Amino acid sequence: MNSALVISTYNWPEALELVLKSVRMQKVYPDEVIIADDGSTDETKKLINKNKKDFPVPLKHFWHQDKGFRKSHILNLAIANSNADYIIQIDGDCILDKFFIKDHLHSVKENTYLFGSRVNINASYIDKLFLHKKTKFNYFSRGLSKRNRLIRIPLLGALLYRPKLMVSKKIRGCNLSYWKSDLIAVNGYNEDMVGWGREDSEIVHRMNNNGVFGKRLKFKAILFHIWHKNKPKDKLEANNIIQENAIKNFVIRCKNGIDKYLE
């Protein structure tokens, strides 16, 4: 099984630098790392090219022109060009615990997507975070909230949580993994969804409609979300309508999806 870590980003190279640093520190590497770039400036490209020189696995960069929040489009493009069978998906503002990739890959099940939670790095700690380029944290580290999510007991999590044919309200696209074939079966992310909100949960609803189970990763697959200001939510209501339609009408395949990028 080949795996890819897909990292979505937009114009925050300072954060992406720490994310890539945390990828280098993984106990188990994915087979490739793909940056899905929603229209960042050349500063992000320079950072990625610098890392490519000695990165432990192939580091790929897919970019499209900045025309507003189009995460669904750039994720589809990046995933379509992946050589992997299995996709682990995070955001470019999430620093990984050293066991993050290992925990996802050791939890893989057929016909199942996996989702985890996140520890928060608070606004008051951001300056120190970037000053010291900090990527290692423990339960007692300063600047964290939701720190109970930092407890790692993989066996306990495996015993407590089983795959379910339902969509949890705790789904976050910043800590999600799935078989590429399961994503393609529902035609990937719905590119009719533009602007922030619901693109990650909507695709999970369609996978669920197609009989794919969800399994929560508790006490493992830990990551740390860097605080930032909330993104504009002016498209949220329109995206809510698309998601509600997928739920109500048991939609499996979206029309405007990944198929246009596949050979």
How is this structure best summarized?
Helix content is 32%, strand content 18%.
Identify the notable features of this structure and list them briefly.
7-stranded mixed beta sheet, 263 residues, alpha/beta, Spore Coat Polysaccharide Biosynthesis Protein SpsA, Chain A
Q: Would you give an account of this structure?
A:
- Strands 3-2-1-4-9-6-10 form a 7-stranded mixed beta sheet, with helices on both faces. It has a 4-stranded mixed beta sheet with strand order 5-11-7-8.
- It has 9 helices and 11 strands.
- The protein has 263 residues and is an alpha/beta fold.
- The chain is globular and about 50 Å long.
- Helix 1 (13-24) links the parallel strand 1 and strand 2.
- The chain has a single domain (3-261), classed as Spore Coat Polysaccharide Biosynthesis Protein SpsA, Chain A.
- Helix content is 32%, strand content 18%.
- The protein has helices at 13-24, 42-52, 71-80, 100-106, 126-132, 154-160, 180-185, 199-209, 236-248, and strands at 3-9, 32-37, 59-63, 86-91, 94-96, 112-115, 119-121, 144-145, 176-179, 213-216, 223-226.
Work out the count of structural domains: 1
Per the principal axes of the C-alpha atoms, what is the gross shape?
Answer: globular
Category from helices, strands and their pairing: alpha/beta
| CATH class type | Alpha Beta
Q: What is the name of the CATH superfamily? A: Spore Coat Polysaccharide Biosynthesis Protein SpsA, Chain A
- The amount of beta strand, in percent, is 15-25%
Question: Span between N and C termini?
Answer: 21 Å
Low-confidence stretches: none
Main β-sheet, spatial strand arrangement: 3-2-1-4-9-6-10
Specify the CATH architecture: Alpha-Beta Complex
What's the number of extended β-strand segments?
Answer: 11
Rg over CA atoms, rounded to whole Å, is 17 Å
Residue share in helix:
25-40%
CATH topology tier name? Spore Coat Polysaccharide Biosynthesis Protein SpsA, Chain A
H/E series: EHEHEHEEHEEHEHEHHEEH
Please, what is the average pLDDT? Answer: 95
The number of helical segments is 9
Q: Biggest β-sheet, characterized?
A: 7 strands, mixed
